[in-house]
Write a structure and sequence with these properties.
CATH class: Alpha Beta
Order of helices and strands: HEHEHEEHHHHHH
Largest sheet: 4 strands, mixed
Strand content: 5-15%
Radius of gyration: 21 Å
């Protein structure tokens, strides 16, 4: 009985702390997914410094799901109407596995590369593999290769189980948030001391190389299997 009461008390305390953290969060506009005070602090630190140096607010929204018949773009437009001044809204919807970025005014799109940030390809090799497997025209090949350097989707594509899934979400969205913040700051001639940093970026680059190395290996096995299958068919 004592253990049960303690567990309930701990759960209640965790809920209260999460609620209090959300009350003080400005740039982590809504979080139904991660609910981690450390994650909130990191986002708030970057967002606050970016706003102080550029006057631009970068909001992150983490949703479990959208209302029925509402698209992610519709949701972002609704949030945009609630914000004041220049704002960029980055939204992640867990159940739909969707990520999008909305900028208002639209001139803010000139301050960061949305195509690159949301690219499914982190490296040149990954972009080449994707173009081989999915591109249907030269223009699509060109777009896939030119927009490489994705900082969110390659991490979301990593396999994870249990509690690792939420950790993967937080790493991916933090990485993308920091990327956009750094690009906006650079466009205004500023640098951010609170952002990801070289060490974190190097670690993420290593994860990308491992991820796309696995894809290349799988592609090699697939092509080799098809090749040997054709040879066996001809020999018969």
């Amino acid at each position: 009985m004592i253990k049960l009461k303690f567990s309930r008390g701990l759960a209640a305390l965790t809920l209260v702390l999460s609620f209090l953290t959300s009350l003080h969060a400005e740039f982590l506009y809504k979080d139904d997914v991660v609910n981690n005070p450390k994650f909130t602090q990191q986002i708030e630190s970057i967002g606050s410094e970016l706003k102080a140096k550029t006057g631009i607010s970068l909001y992150l929204v983490m949703l479990r799901d959208l209302d029925s018949n509402e698209s992610i773009t519709d949701f972002e437009k609704r949030i945009s109407a609630e914000t004041n001044g220049s704002a960029v809204i980055m939204t992640f919807v867990e159940l739909k596995k969707e990520v999008d970025i909305l900028a208002r005014p639209t001139s803010l799109y000139n301050d960061f590369n949305k195509g690159q940030v949301l690219s499914p390809n982190a490296t040149f090799i990954g972009a080449v593999v994707s173009s081989i497997m999915f591109a249907r025209s030269y223009d699509e090949v060109k777009e896939l290769i030119s927009n490489r350097g994705g900082t969110i989707l390659p991490i979301l594509a990593e396999r994870a189980k249990g509690a690792e899934i939420v950790s993967k979400y937080s790493v991916a969205m933090y990485n993308g948030y920091a990327d956009v913040a750094e690009q906006i700051a650079a466009s205004k001639g500023q640098t951010l001391s609170s952002s990801a940093g070289t060490g974190s970026q190097t670690f993420i680059d290593i994860l990308r190389l491992i991820f796309y190395g696995i894809i290349l290996y799988a592609l090699f096995i697939y092509v080799r299997g098809r090749f040997f299958k054709k040879r066996e068919t001809k020999s018969e």
